[in-house]
């Protein structure tokens, strides 16, 4: 069986379940990270919001190339295959009808998928169906935090005729309303070794452009990942 982890963005799987991927690859299992929103922007005319993010990430107009390289290294550290789909991140996507940016502010990231993107959901589902090998176990984000690209990924995955497991979206799982997940029994629960934790931290650090989104520095990130692993007592996957 091949494990296919669907990652809305380049860093989501590394953040949420990086230690599990390392443990699986070390035990000889085939592991792959499929980043759904990993494509190039459809236009060089970025919204002010996208430009603001590029400045914070220190990636400029080469953001996608930089982030793809980061993800390739992150997956290498975890022993996973990196697959990048051609759907742009929501901060770049334009309405197929109005040609305007659909998600052009921080507030716009936490909304349902825009009705104009219904064909995109079908497109992603069709591409997933075409690419999925037989006997694959697909693991999808739960969409904790309700980021629009996480919703998009789950909507497409749920159109597949395959059983799904779900991972808790980190760091959104830390929100107060999600606390019951830490005690909830799960059909898949695996402890993470010290080596697995180290690989997890290194894989997150490989996404260098994204560290400032959540933490002040790498030391703070490493501590946060360690504390999350201890609190979850490893990593759980849910149905």
Can you walk me through this structure?
With 239 residues, this protein is α/β, with parallel strands linked by helices. It has one domain (2-238): LmbE-like (Rossmann fold). It has eight helices and seven strands. It has helices at 12-26, 48-57, 63-78, 118-131, 148-157, 194-206, 211-214, 218-232, and strands spanning 2-7, 30-35, 81-84, 136-141, 164-167, 188-190, 235-238. The chain has a seven-stranded mixed sheet with strand order 3-2-1-4-5-7-6, with helices on both faces. The longest helix has 16 residues, at 63-78.
Instruction: Please tell me the CATH architecture by its name.
Output: 3-Layer(aba) Sandwich
Integer count of domains: 1
Number of helices: 8
CATH topology (fold) name: Rossmann fold
The end-to-end span amounts to 18 Å
> Percent range for helical residues?
40-55%
Number of strands: 7
What do we call the CATH homologous superfamily? Answer: LmbE-like
Q: Helices and strands, in N-to-C order?
A: EHEHHEHEHEEHHHE
How would the global form be characterised?
A: globular
The proportion of residues in beta strands is: 5-15%
Our Rg estimate from Cα atoms comes to: 17 Å
Report the uncertain regions.
none
Which CATH C-level class is it?
Alpha Beta
């Amino acid at each position: 069986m091949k494990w296919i982890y669907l990652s809305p963005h380049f860093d989501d799987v590394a953040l949420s379940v990086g230690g599990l991927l390392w443990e699986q690859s070390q035990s000889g299992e085939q592991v792959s990270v499929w980043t759904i929103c990993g494509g190039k922007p459809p236009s060089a005319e970025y919204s002010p919001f996208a430009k603001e993010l590029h400045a914070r990430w220190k990636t400029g107009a080469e953001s996608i190339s930089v982030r793809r390289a980061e993800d390739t290294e992150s997956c290498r550290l975890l022993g996973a295959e990196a697959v990048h789909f051609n759907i742009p991140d929501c901060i770049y996507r334009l309405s197929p009808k109005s040609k305007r940016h659909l998600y052009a502010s921080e507030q716009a990231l936490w909304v349902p998928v825009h009705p104009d993107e219904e064909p995109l959901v079908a497109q992603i589902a069709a591409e997933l169906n075409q690419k999925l090998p037989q006997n694959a176990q697909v693991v999808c984000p739960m969409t904790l935090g309700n980021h629009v690209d996480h919703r998009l990924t789950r909507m497409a995955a749920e159109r597949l005729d395959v059983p799904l497991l779900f991972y808790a979206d980190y760091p959104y799982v830390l929100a107060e309303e999600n606390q019951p997940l830490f005690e909830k029994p799960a059909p898949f629960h695996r402890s993470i070794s010290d080596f697995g934790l180290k690989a997890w931290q290194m894989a997150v650090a490989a996404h260098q452009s994204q560290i400032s989104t959540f933490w002040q520095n790498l030391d703070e990130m490493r501590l946060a990942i360690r504390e999350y692993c201890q609190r979850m007592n490893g990593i759980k996957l849910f149905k």
